C-alpha cells in the first residue's frame, strides 16, 4: 500500500485530488494539508511514501517544504502539481529529487500515470535484492538507445537485408551456411553472400570455417 498526503492550499482542489487518489487501488491518502508547514510537522511524526503538493502556498511554499524535508532527512517522494512554470522553480524541484512535475490545468489521466509509475518503481525496489543495469534503467526511466542505423552500401536493399535477418533470428541458436540461408530466404547464394559480408562488417554476425565436412570446407554464420 502506497501512503500519500496531499498538500494544496485550495480546499476544493485538495479534496478532489485526495478523493481521486484514495479511490485508486494500492493507494491510501493519510492526510490533506493546506500549507507546507503543517505538512512538514506531520511528516516528521508520521512518514508516508508520497506527497502530492502544490508550489504556491502560504506560510511555506512547495519548493521550500521540499528543501526542508530533504534537510531533515525526510525521503518521502514528491509529485508537484502546480501552476508554477518558471524554469527556476522547475530546476530547483528537480534538483531536490521530485518524482514528477505536473502543470495545472492537468488531466487526472496524467496524475494517474504518474502515481502508477511511482508504485511500479517502489515495487521494483522492494522486490530486488541487487541491481543490474536493466533494473537501474527502469528506475531512472531510461529507454534503450535505438539501434544505430548504418547507411547501406550501393546495391543492398533494406527489405532484403531484413528478410535475411529474420531468417537468422528464427533459428538464432543454429549455425547457417550460405546455401541454407539461400533456400530459406528464396534468394540466390550470390545475393545472400553479399548481405552476409555486410552483416559481418556491421558486427552483428560471426563466421567460422568448418573443416569437418569430409570434403570441401564450408563457412558457418551465426548472429552474435
Name the descriptors.
Arc Repressor Mutant, subunit A; Rossmann fold; 2 domains; alpha/beta; 46% helix; 9 helices; 5-stranded parallel sheet; 224 residues; two-stranded antiparallel ribbon; elongated
Model description:
- By secondary structure, this protein is α/β, with parallel strands linked by helices.
- The chain has 2 domains: 128 residues, Rossmann fold; 66 residues, Arc Repressor Mutant, subunit A.
- Helix content is 46%, strand content 17%.
- The chain is built from 9 helices and 7 strands, in the order βαβαβαβαβαααααββ.
- A 5-stranded parallel β-sheet has the order 2-1-3-4-5, sandwiched between helices.
- Helix 1 links the parallel strand 1 and strand 2.
- Helix 2 runs parallel beside helix 3 and helix 8 crosses helix 9.
- It is elongated.
SSE diagram, text form:
Layout (H helix, E strand, L loop, with lengths): L1 E6 L3 H13 L3 E7 L2 H10 L4 E4 L8 H10 L5 E6 L4 H9 L4 E4 L4 H20 L5 H8 L17 H13 L7 H8 L3 H13 L3 E6 L7 E6 L1
Parallel strand pairs: 1-2, 1-3, 3-4, 4-5
Antiparallel strand pairs: 6-7
Gap between N and C termini, in Å? 43 Å
The CATH topology name of the largest domain reads Rossmann fold
**Average pLDDT value?**
87
Largest sheet: spatial strand order = 2-1-3-4-5
Task: Report the biggest beta sheet as strand number plus sense, adding barrel if it closes.
Answer: 5 strands, parallel
Which series of helices and strands comes N to C? EHEHEHEHEHHHHHEE
Counted beta strands: 7
Q: Gyration radius, to the nearest Å?
A: 28 Å
Q: What is the helix content?
A: 40-55%
- What is the assigned CATH homologous superfamily of the largest domain? Response regulator
Amino acid at each position: 500500500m502506497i501512503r500519500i498526503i496531499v498538500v494544496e492550499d485550495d480546499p476544493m482542489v485538495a479534496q478532489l485530488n485526495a478523493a481521486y487518489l484514495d479511490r485508486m487501488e494500492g493507494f491510501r491518502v493519510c492526510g490533506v494539508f493546506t500549507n507546507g508547514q503543517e505538512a512538514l510537522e506531520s511528516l516528521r511524526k508520521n512518514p508516508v511514501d508520497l506527497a502530492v503538493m502544490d508550489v504556491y502556498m502560504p506560510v511555506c511554499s512547495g519548493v521550500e517544504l521540499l528543501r526542508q524535508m530533504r534537510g531533515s532527512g525526510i525521503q518521502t517522494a514528491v509529485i508537484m502539481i502546480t501552476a508554477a512554470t518558471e524554469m527556476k522553480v522547475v530546476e530547483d524541484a528537480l534538483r531536490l529529487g521530485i518524482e514528477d512535475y505536473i502543470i495545472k490545468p492537468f488531466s487526472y489521466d496524467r496524475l494517474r500515470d504518474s502515481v502508477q509509475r511511482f508504485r511500479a518503481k517502489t515495487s521494483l525496489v522492494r522486490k530486488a535484492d541487487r541491481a543490474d543495469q536493466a533494473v537501474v534503467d527502469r528506475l531512472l526511466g531510461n529507454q534503450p538507445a535505438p539501434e544505430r542505423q548504418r547507411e547501406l552500401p550501393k546495391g543492398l536493399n533494406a527489405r532484403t537485408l531484413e528478410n535475411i535477418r529474420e531468417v537468422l533470428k528464427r533459428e538464432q541458436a543454429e549455425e547457417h551456411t550460405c546455401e541454407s540461408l539461400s533456400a530459406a530466404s528464396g534468394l540466390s547464394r550470390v545475393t545472400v553472400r553479399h548481405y552476409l559480408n555486410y552483416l559481418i562488417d556491421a558486427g552483428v554476425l560471426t563466421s567460422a570455417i568448418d573443416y569437418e565436412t569430409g570434403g570441401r570446407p564450408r563457412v558457418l554464420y551465426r548472429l552474435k
